[in-house]
Amino acid sequence: MPIPWAVAAKAIPWGEVIAAAPSIVRGARELLSRTRGEAGDASAGTPATPEERIGALEARVEALAGELETSTDLITQLAEHNERLVVAVERLHRQLSLALVVGGVALLGAIAALLLP
How many CB atoms lie within 10 A of CB 63? Predict the structure, then answer.
C-alpha cells in the first residue's frame, strides 16, 4: 500500500527537526575534522624515548575518549530524531487505517443506498 507522502510530511514535527539540524551538522563536522586532524598528527613521527611514547599514547587515548563522547552524543541525537519520526509514521499509519475503514463503511453504505430502493 503506498504511503501518502504529503500527509506524512505534514505530520513530521519539522520545527523540531529544523531546530536541531544545525547542532547535529556542527557535531558531525567537528567529529569529521577532529578525526582527519588526528590522522595527520599520528603520521607526523614516533617519539624516541619510552616516556615520550607513553605520553603520546596517553594523549591519543584521551583524544579518542573525547571523540567517543562526541560521537555518542551525535548518535544519541540522531536516534532521538529517528524515534520521533517513527512515532509520527506510526500515527499516520493508524490514521490511514481508520480513514480506510471509514471510507469502506461509507462506500458500502453508498452501494447499499443505490441498490435498495
Answer: 16
In this predicted model, what pLDDT tens digit does every residue of 28-66 receive, in sequence order?
777 777 777 765 555 556 668 889 999 999 999 999 999
52, amino acid identity: E
Q: Choose the weakest-confidence range: 20-29, 33-42, 98-107.
A: 33-42
Q: What share of the chain is helix, strand, coil (3-state, %, to 5)?
A: 85, 0, 15
Give the pTM: 0.49
How far CA 8 is from CA of 3, 4, 70, 92, 104, in Å, comes to 8, 6, 31, 7, 21
How far, in Å, CA of 79 to CA of 89, rounded? 15
For the beta carbon of residue 20, count every other beta carbon within 10 angstroms: 15
Long-range contacts for 1-9 (Cβ within 8 Å, ≥24 apart)? 3/92, 4/96, 7/92, 7/95, 7/96, 8/88, 8/89, 8/92
